Amino acid sequence: MSPRTLYQKLLDTHTVATLDEQNVLLFCDLHLMNEYTSPQAFAGLRDAGRTVAMPGQNVATVSHIIPTHPGKVRVIADAASALQASNLKRNCDAFDIPLFDTNDALQGIEHVVAPEHGMIRPGMVVICGDSHTTTYGALGALGFGIGTTEVEHVLATQTLVYRVAKTMQIRIDGQLPFGVTSKDLVLAIVGRIGAQGARGYVVEYSGSAVEALSIEARFTLCNMLVEAGARGALVAPDQKAIDYVMARAPDLAGPHRQAALEAWRDLRTDEGAHFDAVHRIDAGTIAPQVTWGTSPDQVIAIDGHVPHLDQVQDAVARGSAARAMEYTRLPAGAAIAGTPVQHVFIGSCTNGRIEDLRAAAAVARGRRVAAGVRAMVVPGSGAVKAAAEAEGLDKVFIEAGFEWRNAGCSMCLAMNDDVLEEGVRCASTTNRNFEGRQGRGAITHLMSPAMAAAAATAGRIMDVRELKEQAQ
């Protein structure tokens, strides 16, 4: 057999049938659902008189529409959103599908909840009606988003008609400098290859810099590569990944544990395997990143400037840049550092894990949120919230003037009651800075948790590395 990439191995072990040269019928180990992409799928099942083929391999959570205001009982006030949540519960009850409901203590964002409860394991195929399902590649699982019609097909058959992707390797060597995180790294990658740079590809990250990252940092790295159009993002499972999973999967004991370890041993790209595209990056050249426009690839280093239009060679990109400057109210040539902010949001499936909150708390400790700034910290799940409170991180944030909220997607997107008003500029740890993403006319600047916390205390976008210099 010729050398194969990790992606090709995952594909081979999950292909039920080859349909043609480009498409296969793929078995899906786990299907995650949320409240907004599943209602039509369940309706389709009922109309066709079908049932769910494998209920235990489907899991649902209410996350995008849920309010995150402090309090023990959460009530969804918006009637349409409340109906979505109640419909999800009704459907899950009817088809015997596990659900993390609105007031479940462990409720949270699907891409945070699933791995922290041991549902994601190396070698799996995991799908969800949400594009950031690429997150699970951090554990050597092929994760990707699907549409509503595909959700119905998976519920009925636990399989999916899947178009085979091309392969790309992004090799990252060297050491990330002080103050630079996986969020900065992935923003720099998206900026370098462009919003369509990985379109049609499943990407495998490799290199010494990737090996040095924690599993939570790898989640961030895989989560955001969909912003470059990637159909999947993978990291070959190493001992870190195995330890992460084993600590959260008590069912993998005795002979099951040994069988899993043996199966996972082969989950790496063979020597000499071919990639259709290769990128190499020196981690040591990366600085803290901040988006200036309305697409994640419109990003610059913290000491950078908004580009002049004559610097943008491609006509389409030049037009997009011009529109972005008008929307964000930043003129060409403007320095991104020093830009005032009125809001700070720390959370999301990209940066709402305990490691992210620790990084933000380290900056917030002993400081205060600047006058005129509203700052929010929203854990990615109930388990993350409990862990943060056990460490006293909630007290650090509250004493610094941040709002400490309940778990949920919150201000990542304007689908709940955490919505920014027009013209409000937000330093955000989320994954998208599209027009209106956090509220109609609101302006979003993506950055790392530490950078967002620094912006909150300064009242402006600043280089978090300056805080270390000030302390010396």
TrEMBL record:
Gene3D superfamilies: Aconitase, domain 3 (3.30.499.10). Keywords: 4Fe-4S, Amino-acid biosynthesis, Branched-chain amino acid biosynthesis, Iron, Iron-sulfur, Leucine biosynthesis, Lyase, Metal-binding. Its cofactor is [4Fe-4S] cluster. The keyword Iron-sulfur applies. It comes from the Bacteria. GO terms for biological process: L-leucine biosynthetic process. InterPro entries: 3-IsopropMal_deHydase_lsu (IPR004430), Acnase/IPM_dHydase_lsu_aba_1/3 (IPR015931), Acoase/IPM_deHydtase_lsu_aba (IPR001030), Aconitase_4Fe-4S_BS (IPR018136), Aconitase_4Fe-4S_dom (IPR036008), IPM_dehydratase_rel_enz (IPR050067). One of its GO terms (molecular function) is 3-isopropylmalate dehydratase activity. Its EC number is 4.2.1.33. The keyword 4Fe-4S applies. Belongs to the aconitase/IPM isomerase family. LeuC type 1 subfamily. This is 3-isopropylmalate dehydratase large subunit. It comes from Bordetella genomosp. 11. The gene is leuC.
